[in-house]
Amino acid sequence: MQIYKVGGAIRDRLLGKPVTDIDWVVVGATTEEMLAKGFRPVGADFPVFLHPKSGEEYALARTERKSGRGYGGFTFHASPEVTLEEDLIRRDLTINAMAEDDQQNLTDPYHGQRDLEARLLRHVSPAFAEDPLRVLRVARFAARYAELGFTVAPETLELMRQLSESGELEALTAERSWKEISRALMEDQPQVFIEVLRECGALKVLMPEVDALFGVPQPEAHHPEIDTGVHTLSVLEQAAQHKQPLTVRWACLLHDLGKGLTPEEEWPRHIAHEHTGLKLIKAVNERFKAPKDCQELALLVGKYHTHGHRALELKASTLLELLQSFDVYRRPQRFEEFIAACEMDARGRKGLEQRSYPQADYLRGAATAARSVAVQPLLEKGFNGPELGEAIKRERLKALKVYKENASA
Ligand code: ATP
Ligand code: MG
């Protein structure tokens, strides 16, 4: 059997990027031989194994054929006769379809190296269209390598466009899509992921709620960039520049969905978009089965981000409601993420990226003030049950009033 390094490890080494995980392909071997060498099978009917020591993935060279809709609709053919070239041609992009032996001899039948130099994301063969996930993968790679000047080859974009129009994207499972989306959002330029999806028409299929934001104006006085879609991309960009976690990035992407529902007569104002957007945020959350913490934060940010911006003007009672809604006493981290999302929203406006956001510290101070109310003295006064709850709230409100006075003094 011959063993080759393939895919990302070759690509990233040639790009001079750190290589994190290595994928291997094995030519000329059978499942039995792999098992005899101590490799552990990954799945029942998938010719992929884990190395007994390194735990890295070793896949038998295979060909693939589409046999139906969706991901289940694939048949694999792995046998010792399948050549390296046959295995490489089923891969998504030319830059991912290179292999290397242990002497660092490169096998590059589809000109991945040429495309690396030309900074092009290009599909390997027309079989690209057999797996719609590749549309998301290409958009993700476009986000990852945007900084290096990579773009999607026009003929690949055209294929992506056809795939998006064909209805195939709808056959993707939530799990496969979310894996790509979440990884793409964690790239340094996640806005490029959304841009590429939009350009090929996939955004309209996957997240029509986000797609609908493009072309929707906002008041120029607050939003010099005017367009809500452009604003959303800038917020996402800010979130990446500030190294925000996935929860915050997801919330940033979805925070303004309600603006896509505003009747045109009301443009450029968006009264109550925080509330109209909630059902859309819920729908997107559920479509991709986003993790609970992402879902929760997106809904809270959607509902309360304008509260965040107006923090300094909020009445003490409204501040208290906000803090209660976040259960800031038990979930301080979630409130920090809310503050971060609000700040990214404020910075994601043309020309205002560097403007300070005093609301952040003000909200933190308010949380500290409310949290400083001690329960023990109230218990000692004999409060219990719902009355205790009311008494705590009253004390917190008092603390917030004092906080507000001191802050404005
Ligand atoms: P990363 O750095 O994100 O891991 P990678 O290129 O290694 O990038 P993997 O998802 O680990 O990506 O996949 C390894 C290789 O398998 C890819 O380089 C590509 O050749 C191939 N591959 C993975 N998924 C697909 C797919 N859906 N369609 C075609 N080829 C794929
Ligand atoms: Mg990999």
Helix and strand topology:
Blueprint: E1 2-6, H1 8-14, E2 23-27, H2 31-36, E3 40-41, E4 48-50, E5 57-60, E6 62-66, E7 74-78, H3 84-89, E8 99-100, E9 106-107, H4 112-117, E10 120-121, H5 133-145, E11 151-152, H6 154-166, H7 174-185, H8 190-199, H9 202-206, H10 208-211, H11 228-241, H12 246-254, H13 273-276, H14 278-287, H15 292-309, H16 316-325, H17 332-347, H18 358-371, H19 376-380, H20 385-408
Parallel strand pairs: 2-5, 10-11
Antiparallel strand pairs: 1-2, 1-8, 3-4, 4-5, 6-7, 8-9
Helix pairs in contact: 5-7, 5-8, 8-11, 11-12, 11-17, 12-15, 12-17, 14-15, 15-17, 16-20, 17-18, 18-20
Structure report:
By secondary structure, this protein is α+β, with helices and mostly antiparallel strands. Helix 5 crosses helix 8. Strands 3-4-5-2-1-8-9 form a seven-stranded mixed beta sheet. Strands 6-7 form a two-stranded antiparallel ribbon. A two-stranded parallel sheet has the order 10-11. Among the domains are: 111 residues, Beta Polymerase, domain 2 (2-Layer Sandwich); 37 residues. The chain contains 20 helices and eleven strands. 50% of the residues lie in helices and 9% in strands. The chain binds adenosine-5'-triphosphate (ATP) and magnesium ion. The site of magnesium ion (MG) has 4 residues, from loops.
